[in-house]
Amino acid sequence: MPVVDVDPDELRHLTGHEEKDDEELKSDLFDLGLEFEGRTEDDEFQLEFAPDRLDRLSVEGVARSLRYHYGDDRGVYVPATNSAEWTIEVTDQPEGRPYVTGAVVRGLDMSEDALESLIQLQEKLHATMGRKRAKGAIGVHDLTMLKGEAATDGTGKSITYTSADPDEATFVPLDADREMTPNEVVADHETGQTYGDLVAEFDRVPAIYDAIGLFSFPPVINGRRTEVTEDSRDLFIEMTGTDQWTIDRMCNIVCYALEARGGKVERVEVAYADDAPGEYPGRTLSRPDFEVRTKTVTLDRIESILGVDLEPREVVDYAERAGLDATEIRSEDGVSFEVEVPPYRVDVIHPLDIIDDIGRALGFNSLEPTYPDVSTVGGRHERSRLEDAARDTLVGLGFEDLLNFHMTNEAENFGRMNVSPDDDCLGAADPVTIQEPYSEDYTILRTWALPSLLMVLENNTHRRYPQDLAEIGLAAGLDDSQNTGVAEHRTVAGALARTDASYEDAKARLQAIAEAFGTDLRTPPTTHPSFIDGRAAEIVLDGDSVGVVGEIHPKVLVDHDLELPVAAFEFRLDALE
After folding, report:
1. Is pTM, for the whole model, over 0.85?
2. Whole-angstrom Cα distance, residue 107 to residue 109?
């Protein structure tokens, strides 16, 4: 979950509630779904929240939510915008990164707190919605340091989003004191080394020019000439990416945060060339895109989901307290509401999101629990009994029980385990892929559990050994023979990390598990890319091949920064039935 550092004094100032003490703020934040995780060295709150509410990645966004919660603000708010003076002219941009958006914000008082908040918001948006800058990257510049060309239409000023030769274009990047080419930035600059892979496949790299020259090398780094400081008052915001919708929504969130600091938002025209790649050749877009969206939800569904009876006027009131606007609509089918959604709410995609907001405004803690109106009596599923018994056995053998995420990514599930989806071995399967993942860290459902255990060991190298870890959890893969197209199963995995870890140690624990469940265990030799040849065996329970046991291959250990040997096993839970 994302964690945001928030200064409680700033929060009190921005909400206008100086009387609130820290404990009251924590309680109010919890009502909004923001959990207090501790304090930083500077005594700031560390707040954890669901990754869908990206508008709360800054103290300004959190303060806005609190003002609605307190009833100080109501309904949809859309900032007024001045007419466009600047144009981003788009020509010859890289096909792999064809889209750009922007805005101008004037009249800011960039205090140290405001600047730190802007930097944090930029970093958090990069890490979440921007997919570590791969899908969207933000550049914020001091407007007074830009010199615009005359716009093509003869009015206003312009900058140009285009492509550049990575060996010829030069500029002074942030945190540097000399001119560098884009290739030199990627090779020698710390930030360039971190994000250089994003432009590695481009023959010509993304570049943004003004009348003076190159001032931004997106998505890698901005130029030093336009660096934002506490003395900056007017800002130019540009964002480039692979998807116009994503960068437009990122731009909205930044503009709302800066407007909360007293800035005045000014529109920017984005003029795409006639031969521009992507969806908008020959079109001129006016940005930021502060369009208000609408969703429809029925009163019956609101009452059914929340379990309370509400008057239509109450729904309208709760919607306004959630920062929405609701209009009652009566028809033969009953009462429904047309709900307006503000531009910064990128998370509202379904009527249930509206109902969740209404429920929070009502107060989930005020809802009375009720028994379901069903005539059946619940009981433990046999699979659940088996899982608990297996877990008890593992704990009895000295394993620490884990609960890991079922979602991962292909690099962790396959690459770092030395496995390919096309291999004929445990863990090799066509994975279930998430079409629109929020983060590149979680793009597939895992096909086996051992990678999760190795990741835990990697994150715990600072802790004392031995570390004996085990997990019983979900694994899945594509399977056309299933009605859903996906085959799911529960899997049992264990790992022993210690100076003397060996195949014999892992097999001994495996033998104890088999005996506890009255199953016959055989371990004929086998090969597996994740294990050392000659130190791995097939797990055969009651005649069925169900898994693998052995010593983890040195290459896998090195990829996970592990310096001790690891012995491990994994098999299907249903083999113990």
Report:
1. no
2. 7
